[in-house]
Specification:
single chain, mainly alpha
Length: 115
């Protein structure tokens, strides 16, 4: 019984490290240079994500933008994993007043495969 408790305790301590990418960190490292940490962008240079039609719009359009880039925005399809792209995009879709639904790895696979 004690061994089960200790194993359970150790698993719960290790779980956060295995939980996946940290959305705020991914956004800060890959998106904030242009879109800024506050999501307001740089007027006249880089668009705001706060209130953005793409960030708040249908998942496939937002996923396509992250995968393939747009304008000066780089394509992230070969720079980040689907899990990392989903985490960063979900961060943008749920912050600064944005209230769009989540995207997942399957959304990236569907868009990549043209479905």
């Amino acid at each position: 019984m004690r061994l089960v408790f200790i194993a359970s305790l150790l698993a719960s301590i290790a779980a956060p490290a295995l939980a996946g990418p940290e959305p705020a960190k991914l956004f800060a490292e890959n998106c904030a240079r242009c879109h800024q940490l506050d999501g307001k962008g740089l007027p006249g240079a880089y668009p705001a994500l706060a209130g953005s039609k793409i960030a708040n719009g249908p998942a496939p359009a937002a996923v396509r933008t992250v995968l393939d880039g747009k304008g000066e925005m780089p394509a992230f399809r070969n720079q980040l994993t689907d899990d990392e792209m989903a985490a960063a995009l979900n961060y943008a879709r749920t912050n600064w007043g944005n209230m769009a639904g989540p995207v997942g790895i399957a959304d990236f696979a569907r868009v990549r495969d043209g479905k």
